Amino acid sequence: MAKKPTYDSTITLTVAALVVIGIVMVFSSSYANALVNFKDGYFYLKKGLMWGALGTFAMYFCARFPYYKWERYANLLFFFSIGLLILVLTPVGTEINGSQRWITIAGQTIMPSEIAKFCAIIYVSTTITRKKDKIKSFVYGVLPYLLIIGMYFSLIYFQPDLSTAFVLGVVIMSIVFVGGMKLTHFIGLALTGLGAISSLIAYIVIKGDSYKARRITAFLDPWADPSASGFQVIQSLLALGSGGLFGRGLGRSVQKHFYLPEPQNDFIFAIIGEELGFIGGTVVLLLFLILIWRGVRIAMNAPDLQSCLLATGIIALITIQVIINIAVATSSMPVTGMPLPFISSGGNALVVFMALTGILLNISKHINPDRR
User: Fold this and answer.
1) Alpha carbons 348 and 76: distance in angstroms, whole number
2) Which distant-in-sequence residues (6+ apart) come within 8 Å of 163 by Cβ?
3) CB of 111 closer than 8 Å to CB of 348
4) What is the pLDDT of residues 338-371, one digit of tens each?
5) N or C: which end of the chain has fewer CB within 10 A?
6) Do 59 and 358 contact (CB within 8 A), yes or no?
């Protein structure tokens, strides 16, 4: 008798654990900040619980919604995401800390670039499936996706948000590669991309008068300017170092008290390391590794090309963001704003990641149980 198809319970439990850790750690790391800035120490906790509830609903809906039916809405989602990215650059957009990346709706800020990640994965996966015979052609298969990357990259870059633009470009190319592009095309584009990035970094360093240049020099030697460009990196390393093996204890971080800016967002892994120690940080890393491993298995055993590409895009996005966030917190790369999936405070980003997880769960239900 054939086994009844079921969702991947490992992914469900892993994501649930990450979300719970995220809500707890966001509350712990943000209490002082919220008390001073919003006169309510529970501000980020309430926000996290609200977005967590919306994310749970989004994950449940996407897990129940057949993955192959997203094809019907792929074009609509693409134009919707482009429209939002254009809208955020108009006076409708909300500027925070010198960046215009948000739109405020009913008192809540949303980031169109996060929604664009969801829409881009569905659109690219669907369109490659539609024209899978042409993907080996550079002109008809690869070039259109380079134009799509250029469109997304330009709109997000001018917010400005170089890291998100870069991540989205890499995710799209990952889908195209798995979709069947020639290895020679991939190698050529990869080398061209590395050359372009190297040239951009060299230009920024030589010019030397932008915040991007200061971030690069701070990465090379944070102690050269400890009170300005190197401040975040130093405080993050102090937090991780002072946590030791077992940590100071939940809620006992020192760096979150206005030493480490916005500890509930991009540097939350440093607070995890300080309060929960090396063991706590390792547990978080293991949870991400389990999630990525299960996602890769789903992509490899997917029932068709569309589901394989969807799973590839979702796991590529999660993997890249985890690597960048932790690399920044450990001073393994220059500082850039990249939230830690499921954990960092970030409203609609949590909803998007949980919705994508729902799609992954739906795909897992269509895999032959004997191949799990």
Assistant:
1) 19
2) 324, 336, 337, 338
3) yes
4) 899 999 987 789 999 999 999 999 999 988 655 5
5) N
6) yes
